[in-house]
Design goal:
The protein is α/β, with parallel strands linked by helices. The chain folds into two domains: 213 residues, no CATH class; 352 residues, Alkaline Phosphatase, subunit A. It is 49% helix and 11% strand. It has 25 helices and 22 strands. The strands form seven sheets. The chain has an eight-stranded mixed beta sheet, sandwiched between helices. Strands 19-20-21-22 form a four-stranded antiparallel beta sheet, covered by helices on one side. Strand 21 and strand 22 form a beta hairpin.
Length: 676
């Protein structure tokens, strides 16, 4: 033992390892330099992807994991007998891996997350929003990864003669080369896995915090894991069902739902309901004016006369608008794998629409897009709607952006609602989904002007600056201003037809407008005197950080009635998942046994937890970042570790329970057992 740890013994071991590396790697890669070129350039692409997206390019774990996967991927080239086929394999592999990087980079630009194989079913919807993709997503930097296959190709052309010479004088057999690369790759993955924490492994298994998984395990390990995770719905009867059923049953058994009556219980019982699903409407717009003209004068008036949730957040995933509908309707979180409306439309759910239907309401929905967009025609039946009036029910000759204009849509909807009211002689619940305010906010010439310029006094002279005119935010505010006009006319038309006398008007923004942080920086830090954007260190500079950007994504939730005015602003943080419990209490309809939200209004909660699909959450005190566990103070009050951990567990449970219910169709199973 002493001999082993002696200076001479250690030197011998180092010399042996050095010779081993020289023989197995230096000599090996000298014989196949194209492979070495592929490995280094492909690894650089993964580093580049992390720099462009999550920014953790100094992190060694994902580099080791990515290199291990590259060794394994490239090992299979040695199963091919022909040198020509092996080189072709490397070229194809280079192209495939570069395309993977491009897809993730593009996806991250729009969703701030990474793509999944399970989302391929939703890719057809990109065609319908092609303008939005081109204007808001496509960026030259997202295609920079193509340098890698181009470089590998030209490197081969330049060194072709040398490669052919080495091929004739090769030392290593194909079998040795295959095993050498495969075993080395596995060894690197084992080394990387040994450095992972229990939290990182937990996120790897659940895959709902995709940014964190890619940051730790690298792009290629993430992608392989995602493929297996995406197969889960197909094999859920073979694995995981029993434990998921047991976990969900215990969760609801231990969860107490408040059935106590309160001052808001049944205040709107028996009244008609009109729900406006407002496309990309953010609360931020309700708080702004330009040149003394509010962006949303009508909604501002409505908010002051209503139950107004001013600290309300959408909890959508990749399903955007459809996720908002799903969570609003069922009080469940969106799926972490795929989109409920597309991938899990055949499951059984309890919805607010079904609760109204059971109360004797006629339940309908209206939207100016096609019925197959987000699979609404099928999913709306599942949620309990009696009828879905889609694009074919409207005259779409007046279009703005993606389809029928909001003004035309609402104008045509009024006589349809009147007919429903007269025909069925029962209260109705109707949801109307707007369309015009969808990115990229084109056809502005069809909307009224809305000036987002700024005028300042410079040396006694009035100087007008464009400020937000012609910018993404300026176009967005002009579009929101148009939506506000359309909503005002809609409410006026309903009133003229007598349809507001016994009706509650509910409005929610489905999600934020997906506008990049740099656009907000322009709004907050523009200096009209210099006509430039202020920089850090300048007087009056606003340090608009990532968390303020996230908090600015809040959307409005308004509950208003012409004849039964309840004026109250709710500042407690509230989420889309809380909407159904709030409405159930107000209208005294059947409570959803599987809801995960809270009746923030009726229970008078002063603090609440709003969970997001990546494991982040917001309360009245903090914003917790699920990707890196950072905490941003909102209230300025000190919070203890117990507060953070307790709410983190709550958020994780909400995500896990929702995913299990959706994936394994557990509501159907639990309902069947209750009926027996």
């Amino acid at each position: 033992m002493k001999k082993f740890f002696s200076k001479k013994g250690i030197q011998q071991k180092i010399r042996y390892i050095n010779e081993f590396i020289k023989k197995h790697y230096f000599s090996f890669f000298k014989e196949v330099p194209l492979l070495f070129c592929f490995l280094i350039t492909a690894l650089l692409n993964t580093l580049l992807l992390r720099i462009v997206t999550v920014g953790n390019w100094f992190y060694i774990k994902p580099l080791i994991a990515d290199l291990g996967m590259l060794f394994i991927f490239s090992s299979f080239m040695f199963l091919l007998k022909s040198d020509k086929k092996r080189k072709r394999y490397l070229f194809i592999l280079s192209l495939v891996l570069s395309i993977i990087c491009i897809v993730h980079s593009l996806y991250y630009t729009y969703y701030s997350s990474f793509a999944s194989v399970s989302l391929l079913a939703t890719s057809t919807f990109v065609v319908d929003v092609g303008d939005a993709v081109v204007d808001q997503v496509l960026n030259f930097r997202d295609f920079i990864y193509l340098w890698q296959p181009i470089f590998v190709y030209f490197y081969y052309i330049k060194e072709k003669k040398k490669f052919n010479k080495r091929e004739k004088n090769k030392i290593f057999t194909r079998k040795f080369s295959f095993l050498n690369m495969l075993v080395s790759g596995l060894a690197l993955l084992i080394i990387a896995s040994c450095t992972m924490s229990s939290v990182e492994w937990s996120r790897f298994g659940k895959m709902w915090n995709r940014e964190s998984v890619l940051s730790s395990f690298g792009i290629y390990t993430y992608q392989i894991n995602d493929i297996f995770q995406s197969l889960e719905p197909k094999i859920n009867n073979l694995f995981g069902h029993d434990s998921a059923y047991r976990k969900v049953s215990e969760y609801y058994h231990n969860r107490e739902l408040s059935n106590k009556k309160n001052e808001y219980s049944g205040v709107f019982e028996g009244m008609n309901v009109i729900v406006i699903h407002a496309e990309s409407l953010q609360t931020l717009a309700l708080d702004l004016s330009f040149n003394d003209v509010p962006v949303t004068p009508f909604l501002n008036k409505l908010a002051k006369e209503s139950i107004y949730f001013s600290n309300y957040y959408s909890e959508v995933g990749v399903g955007t608008s459809s996720d908002a509908e799903f969570t609003f309707s069922t009080s469940l979180m969106p799926s972490s794998n795929g989109t409920v409306f597309v991938n899990y439309f055949d499951r059984q759910y309890q919805s607010i629409q079904q609760s109204f239907k059971d109360k004797g309401y006629y339940v309908f929905s209206m939207h100016g897009n096609t019925g197959d967009f987000w699979n609404r025609a099928t999913m709306h039946k599942n949620l309990g709607y009696d009828k879905f009036y889609s694009k074919s029910s409207f005259d779409t000759s007046e279009t703005i952006g993606l389809g029928i204009s909001d003004k035309s849509f609402f104008q045509q909807a009024v006589p349809m609602i009147k007919e429903i009211n007269e025909k069925y002689h029962q209260p109705f619940y109707g949801q109307l989904i707007t369309l015009t305010n969808h990115t990229p906010w084109g056809d502005l010439e069809l909307m009224d002007e809305y000036d987002t310029s700024m005028t300042v006094d410079i040396n006694g002279e009035k100087v007008k600056r464009d400020y937000l005119n012609g910018t993404t935010l300026g176009d967005y505010f002009r579009s929101v201003h148009y939506m506000d006009q359309a909503l005002e006319q809609f409410v006026r038309d309903l009133d003229e037809e007598g349809l507001l006398d016994n009706t509650v008007f509910v409005l929610y923004g489905d999600h934020d407008a997906r506008i990049s942080k740099k656009n907000y920086n322009l709004m907050y830090n523009y200096d009209p005197y210099s006509d430039k954007v202020k920089e850090d260190g300048d007087e009056g500079y606003v340090d608009y950080n990532e968390y303020e950007y996230r908090l600015d994504k809040a959307v409005p939730f308004i509950i208003w009635s012409k004849n039964k005015k309840i004026t109250k602003e709710i500042t407690t943080v509230t989420g889309m998942i809380d909407a159904a419990p709030i409405l159930e209490n107000l209208f005294n309809v059947k409570k959803n046994s599987y809801q995960l939200g809270n009746d923030v209004l009726g229970n008078g909660l002063e603090d609440n937890v709003v969970t997001f699909v990546d494991g982040s959450y917001v309360t009245n005190k903090i914003y917790y970042n699920g990707q890196n566990s950072n905490i941003y103070s909102i209230s300025g009050d000190a919070v203890g570790e117990e507060y953070v951990l307790e709410n983190s567990k709550y958020a994780n449970d909400v995500i896990d329970i929702s995913n299990d219910i959706i994936t394994y169709d557990l509501i159907k199973e639990m309902n069947n057992k209750e009926d027996k």
